[in-house]
Design a protein that fits this description.
By secondary structure, the chain is an alpha/beta fold. It has nine helices and 14 strands.
């Protein structure tokens, strides 16, 4: 087994097919297929389910992918560690952020990092919080800013602030209500995240406790999709965000849900693989930056947590 086998296999899993992986590496597809077949023969297991729709890992393949991705990630960090010992930190840092947080933090964070850490390049990803946690585990991300309901286990965690949930509706004539009781959600058409999702899991638990069967008219994982559906008049959504002034064209208003329902914005990293100096520098900058945003901008529904 050689490092190229690990790289090829990881790329196939991430691309979802041999043909897409071959175009990205680039390696001729027949040669790529031969390399993976030889790897499976050496290991004595089938690593990929192959079909006309693409390739996906078997149970053994998923385990192999996690280990291979971790090994490749550690190898990528070696030059960063060595170069950083000689002076200013430099390298690539892979940062993930929940799509809701990214809607108002991503751009200013990247600019802040460009100015404060000019020799560090950010690779930025936006996804649901649960998926970001999985990517920390498989070493395809260094850091992630996520929303938690219950604390994520198996990570180094730094809770930053608590964020209340809001009902987000199309903007209407008249005065915006000051608040809305959770029970009033019964019968409202709702656009909610699809399972599995941190916010959806919390809401489903609260719906059950309140004896409410929610009227879910659409599901989407992406913040922009929820907002678009609300503005199209399909229904309302529930988000940990109460200020849309920084979202271009957002003709919506947000109403606090009573009694308060909270998620916790938390910065997570692996508790098994130490961060390389560039990632550690970004973690410190990101933590300070987010807390400054919460305190200086007075984000609606946000409550800073003690350091």
């Amino acid at each position: 087994m050689q490092l190229r086998h690990l790289r090829y296999f990881v790329k196939i899993v991430e691309a979802g097919s041999f043909s897409r992986a071959a175009a990205l590496i680039p390696v001729a597809q027949p040669a790529l297929s031969q390399q993976i077949a030889a790897l499976e023969e050496e290991l004595g297991v089938t690593l990929l389910h192959r079909s006309a729709r693409g390739a996906r890992p078997t149970a053994a393949g998923a385990a192999f992918y996690a280990e291979a991705a971790s090994i490749l990630s550690r190898m990528e960090r070696i030059p960063q560690i060595v170069r950083s010992l000689g002076g200013e930190v430099q390298g690539v840092v892979r940062v993930g952020m929940s799509s809701t947080l990214a809607s108002f933090l991503a751009g200013v964070l990247m600019e802040k990092c460009r100015v404060a850490l000019p020799r560090i390049s950010l690779r930025f990803s936006s996804d649901a919080s649960g998926q970001l946690g999985s990517r920390i585990r498989d070493s395809s991300l260094d850091l992630a800013l996520v929303f938690e309901d219950e604390p994520f286990t198996g990570f180094e965690r730094k809770p930053l602030f608590r964020q209340r949930l809001f009902l987000v509706s199309p903007r209407r004539a008249g005065r915006r209500p000051a608040g809305l009781r959770f029970e009033q959600l019964a019968g409202m058409p709702l656009i909610l995240p699809a399972h599995p999702n941190i916010t959806r899991g919390l809401l489903d638990r609260l719906f059950t406790q309140a004896g409410i069967v929610p009227q879910v008219v659409a599901e989407t994982e992406v913040f922009s999709g929820m907002l678009s559906a609300v503005q199209a008049g399909i229904g309302n959504t529930i988000l940990p965000l109460g200020d849309f002034s920084g979202v271009p064209g957002a003709m919506v208003w947000a109403v606090l849900i009573e009694p308060p329902v909270y998620l916790t914005a938390t910065l997570i990293a692996s508790n098994e693989v130490p961060l390389a100096p560039p990632a550690e520098a970004v973690r410190m900058l990101l933590s300070d930056f987010v807390m400054q945003q919460v305190q200086d901008r007075g984000l609606a529904g946000a409550e800073p947590l003690a350091s």
